[in-house]
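HUMAN:
Could you generate one sequence with tokenized structure?
ASSISTANT:
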Amino acid sequence: MTTDGADATDAPMTGAARFDVREFARTAVGTHRDRLDVEALAAQPLPPDALRAMRVLRDLEAATMDRLRKVLVTATHKDARVTAFLVSWAFEKFWIADALTAVIDAQPGSQSDDSGATGAAVPRSPGDRRARRGPVRRSLSGFLAGESIVAVHVTTGLVDDWMLRAAYERVIERSENPEIGRALGDVLDLKARHSRFFEEEAMHRLLDSPRAVRLTRRELRRDVLPLGAVAIARADRAFFRWFSFGGEIGPVRAQRVVACVSDLPGMDDGTIEAVQQRLAA
């Protein structure tokens, strides 16, 4: 896959072959630092807005381990295939966050704070409070949802991937540095594999279970998106929406994400509208 002409929906599943989780685990990619040309990264610095977007993306990727902990206290942990994928997925996203830190640090005059949050996010909305629920409450709600909760997790993971892809592509557009384009292109290639798994699982689980559809619609209407956004400041959330989905081309990217959501089995007008509102710059 290349980033030329790509958009936020370029990573869906194609073909009939089922995603090979064992091969994914075998080929999971660790550190990117040995492939980064630090001098080239510094030669053509990122514009300030793109650099800020990189920090936000780094923090969103770094929030993955917290997401994994919350997911695996639910019935999702009983699905060996999904759990095996999520372990390697979290591994790759950890190193993606590390690669973004390296790119940020290479920018002249930039010093990365890799604490995993661009600012203190004060949970005020119901979505914030739900996203910050501890493992006991997560486990209880997941128990009540049963196996259908797996569909919720893979579908929200897919929508999250589509949203982040739009931001990465916007950074590449704003950068005139070929090395940044190459490095982020590698990241997008990895995330395309993630999206393929999530889409494959979401499609068959939503087609198979009306209950899974109902739970997924409810979560997409209420959840904070992208998934790690609860860990960052509200100003950074607003900036992420503006940077990714604002301007002349941004609404086109947003509409492509919305169109992909509408193509998922069982998504009704209320759910689609809720996602669209999350993307409003």
Notes: The CA atoms of residues 51 and 102 lie 12 Å apart. The chain has one domain: 43-111+126-278. Residues 1-15, 115-122 have pLDDT under 50 and may be disordered. The radius of gyration is 18 Å.
